[in-house]
Amino acid sequence: MDKWLRSTWFIRILSLFLAILMWASVSEESTEGTDPNFLNGSSTDKEMAENVPVDIKLEDEELVVTGVPQVADVMLEGPTSQVAPAARQQNFSLYVELNGLGAGVHEVRIQHSGISNQVQVNVEPKTVEVTIERRMSETHNISADFINESQMGSEFEVGEADINPSTVEVTGAASVLSEVAVVKSIVNLAGVDTSIEKRETPVKVYDEEGNELNVIVEPASVTVDVPVSRSKKEVPVAFRAEGEVKDGVKVDKITSSVEKATIYGPKEVLDDINQVSGSIVDTEGLDETTSKDVELEVPNGVVSIEPETVEVKIEITNE
Where in this chain does the entry annotate a coiled-coil region (predicted)? Predict the structure, then answer.
């Protein structure tokens, strides 16, 4: 033993061994409170992916489903490198698995796919109550629903729409079909000033309260013809002389190149007008028969008049 202690190589080996023990002890203490993700060169994150579409997995085409939300929110927690792109790009999917379930009411879990196993996933809502029913079909007549009629000129009148085809097949769950109150072809009249011909319009299905129902409509659109006309009326024109002629003469009569004008406007306004009589003819200083162009007065409530100007003849005679 004394010989080993006096050996230079023994002392060196023993010192090295003790140094390794001390290094290991210090290293263990320094790493006890360290985040493992730091050692792995990564960090954790938590992000919410909102309004992620929810798909329905159901192969039986004779069944229809209600109660599945269109979208759900997903909380993702895990490595930033996994969470950030998943939340922002939504490169994953949500779905409810309904294959194997029969008609009736079921509580099912919203599942996910395409997300790394390193990420913790929480879907809200986690489960949903769905109703599975047999698919049914009914035939319904279509009526025209005119929208934005107030954005037409007030002089235009809209006739009855001709819809082709006049019926559609509505398919859905029996409980939904029982709520069908009306099937409408939506016709937008904004800015329309001529008759509508062969316009393709969407078909919508509503309940009694005006809520659109989630059903399949075949065909989904129809063509419509809608007669649009301008309300008009032909009335006599009369003129009023204004201004003093020269001494010794007088206005004998005023005649026009046209006897009647056509006025356009709302029908209820036109019904009360029987003559355009407010047009003024300036006779100031006249001493002989003269012809002039006169602008016709547009009665209150009338949108337009044709012609806008007429030629009048002012016949002057001696007093």
Answer: none
